[in-house]
Amino acid sequence: MLLYVTLGSNDIPRARTFYDAVLPVLGYRRQRESDEEIGYAADGDTRCRFWVVVPYDQRRATIGNGSMVALHAERRADVDAFYAAALAHGGTDEGRPGLRSFHANFYAAYVRDPDGNKLSAVCERPE
């Protein structure tokens, strides 16, 4: 359904440090970069699906109230590692790893990146 996702940043080097530490625990690696953007993809994917960019209109990047990107995690341990890496690299807590009421196996953690964008890692497999 989704081709790719972009999040705005006001500091690409800071965002690169954060995402280079956080996304590999979910299987995504930086594949492209310039002064204006960084792109991440899963190993073997032919295109970047997750981009962090300086806004095209050159205005300051802002966050959307109610906006969030949820990323798939294979295992609950990956959710835990995502959360720990995010907090260790400038992210902030928006919800510790744990089961949520959405269904019996919805295990998630919520963080904000250094620009304030909200992210979640979710594992829906029973363990």
Task: Provide tags for this entry.
four-stranded mixed β-sheet, 2 helices, 127 residues, 35% strand
In short, what is this structure?
With 127 residues, the protein is of the alpha/beta class. The chain contains 2 helices and 8 strands; from the N terminus they run E-H-E-E-E-E-H-E-E-E. The chain has helices spanning 12-22, 76-88; strands at 5-8, 28-33, 37-42, 50-53, 69-72, 92-99, 107-112, 118-123.
Task: Give a verbal description of the structure.
With 127 residues, the chain is an alpha/beta fold. 19% of the residues lie in helices and 35% in strands. It is built from 2 helices and 8 strands; from the N terminus they run βαββββαβββ. The protein has helices at 12-22, 76-88; strands spanning 5-8, 28-33, 37-42, 50-53, 69-72, 92-99, 107-112, 118-123. The strands form 2 sheets. Strands 1-4-3-2 form a 4-stranded mixed beta sheet, with helices on one face. A 4-stranded mixed beta sheet has the order 5-8-7-6, with helices on one face. Helix 1 packs antiparallel against helix 2. The longest helix has 13 residues, at 76-88. The chain is globular, with a radius of gyration of 14 Å. The two termini are 27 Å apart.
